């Protein structure tokens, strides 16, 4: 299953115009300065924003096409999405948040709970399975959001800064869980401000500035030959 998109979205001062092609089992990292359009890209792929031009396809499935006026609603896209504002159900426990998607798909309660617990354990959250989401720390909530995205048996992953609130050791652990999920056969788009995430996890790096692609390639190649001051700064941040 390949995620293939060319998205054009007019948003205030920035017009996002970006193309991507991510094969199953591969990760495309997206980096860029604040306001460059990274979240807009993820929200558009997820179906939360309408295209003003272009298309979003997943395998043979057309999720959006501006010319045809087609727009599949977010809940019908079967994507695992982590947005910047995690949007967990605050009154539900971590486990109930993660089990929510499988339950909605008709998985029986005990099986959904067991799957949620397995994911929470992998992500180091077993002690917090029963904690209400609104009582979790930022880094704990972020991991619950990752678990929830993976639990939904998605056809692709869209992750907007999913590691931002994590300490270094936890970050490595969560990256490993994401890597395994991707390698099982999902295309993934990962927005990050940390080049180490791209170097560690991504096959390709797309750099956006002002809504446009300024550089694209294997993460190490992009870092080795910066084509903008932003990329130069990012490359210098990793020894
Ligand atoms: N809800 C919104 N309504 C209108 N414009 C928005 C909205 N959210 C973001 N924008 C604008 O869209 C542009 C791109 O924002 P976006 O959030 O996609 O950037 P980003 O690259 O994800 O930034 P950051 O690194 O800060 O998360 C910015 O000019 C921003 O002001």
UniProtKB/TrEMBL annotation:
Transmembrane segments: none annotated. Residues 1-235 form the ABC transporter domain. Pfam families: ABC_tran. It comes from the Bacteria. One of its GO terms (molecular function) is ATP binding. The keyword Transferase does not apply. Keywords: ATP-binding, Nucleotide-binding, Transport. Gene3D superfamilies: P-loop containing nucleotide triphosphate hydrolases. This is ATP-binding cassette domain-containing protein.
